[in-house]
Amino acid sequence: xxxxxIEPGFFASGPVHIALAVGTVIAVTSAVVxxxxxxxxxxxxxxxxxxxxxxxxxxxxxxxxNQFWGYLAFGAGAAAFMEMIGxxxxxxxxxxxxxxxxxxxxxxxxxxxLGTQYSTTTGASFTILxxxxxxxxxxxxxxxxxxxxxxxxxxxxxxxxxxxxxLSPDLAAARGVPVRAVGAAYLMxxxxxxxxxxxxIGAVLSTALLIGPAATALRVAKGxxxxxxxxxxxxxxxxxxxxxxxxxxxxxxxxxxGWPVSFFVVTLITGGYLIxxxxxxxxxxxxxxxxxxxxxxxxC
Amino acid sequence: xxSSFMLNTWVAGTAVAVIAGVAGFFAVLRGSTFAAHAIPNGxxxxxxxxxxxxxxxFVGLAAFSVAGALGxxxxxxxxxxxxxTALTFVMMLGVGALFVSWSTQYAQEAYSLLFGEVFGVxxxxxxxxxxxxxxxxxxxxxxxxxxxxxxxxxxxxxxxxVPPRRMELAFLLVMALATSMTVPVVGALLMFSLMIGPAAAxxxxxxxxxxAMTLSVLIALVTVWVAIAASYQxxxxxGFFVGVIGAxxxxxxxxxxxxRGKSENTVRLAARSLR
Lengths: 300, 275
Prior knowledge:
- The structure holds two protein chains of two kinds.
- Chain A is mainly alpha-helical.
- Chain A has one domain: ABC transporter involved in vitamin B12 uptake, BtuC, CATH 1.10.3470.
- Chain A has eleven helices and no strands.
- The termini of chain A are far apart.
- Chain B has one domain (4-274): Orthogonal Bundle (ABC transporter involved in vitamin B12 uptake, BtuC).
- In chain B, helix 1 packs across helix 10 (188-205).
- The longest helix of chain B is centred in the N-terminal third of the chain and has 27 residues, at 4-30.
- Chain B is globular and about 50 Å long.
- The interface between A and B is large, with 63 and 59 residues.
């Protein structure tokens, strides 16, 4: 019975071990950072930073340095630029994000064009969107985990002031919290965590793991600590199940060469969110449309 | 550059700029930038599915962009719209990844769907763009006043009997319609850049809604024309020039409004012009 659920060899496969380990670290980091992203209404920034980081990856590939640094440099640079042109104001936020994203995507078009011209890489644009979890090399794993932990630690250290500045910037400012500096530090942590996950799992899955578990957790959890814990659990569960199903699907129809991990993880995360959404007697939307005016149900 | 081979490119580019200028003005005013990114990009998955089934990619693009608009509107009813958009978007792309993994020849086409293939456009490809562009611009013109009111002052609009959710859905559907047909020619990414940069620049230049929309169309036209010419000369991709020129216009607009020393308040002026 068990061998139909878990394809033989699942626990013996080296790539699966790495995928599980790295996937877990990314899922936990994304989920915890995501709780603040959803509370602050910065989902678009989170997704854009992943897209922009992949542009950096193709740029680094072009000039022949390690792609990892390209991802990180573009992610952090874009975060700084968004902060400069007005992401801290609620009204201008999505426009500032959109302009930076538009310019970065233009650069991506150029990098890919130059890259394919000189090296004949087919499907480069596809990797940008979807990444590939099974092609991790063991040498990049330690750097990756360290950076993820730094991003996670930054957010945890800032957690209390972040919550306060997210829910009531005026109150925070009155208490002497440097609201803008805290926002900038948070955006940097978001950029690092998102560009790391974009390296490995692609921009799509990175956004799914950032927003989905956190949004679900904020619906069901009481208080921010519980929300972070529930989000991390959902993220890890979806990642593990997704990897397992992708491994199982190796002989599934119609193509007979495995369904993508990203499809499974995204479906599981969205499914989880819809269940919390449709649950009878479920809590109302945890964060009101304009959090400046009202306190969030889940976080007060 | 102005040979008959390029004629369709100029026509398609001009039509796309007009659509993007009009739709982008409202996308920026309503703060629907994320939806403007998600719908054309997610629709790309529909093209993959249609190719897999042997259908015309247009069918898949239209189906997925409308489904995306409906999904965002449905989820927004009980959640923040950015979360609703993010989840709808990743779900569409997740399905797209599945379609692509099933098909064998799709990866090469992905580049042109994302970044466009604007040179060597056939007359058959131009026609749906022009027709659908005219339809969606006309739809926005018909809805202009209620849409402006519900974008600028949702509460007042509701009190006057303009249902905000229905307005949101109507706007998303028009945007879906407008973008789905342009994706194969100009690419999902370029369509997005063209909607946001010029419209945001126009908003920094003037607070009057009618003038801002006209300026948004004009800036989009200049962006596309310069980009086509530059791309033709340099052979670099069109998307690069559109993205960079659009962002440059936005920064110039920001600098202008900063030098003038006034913060933009389209919302208040839109409200006053409607009273």
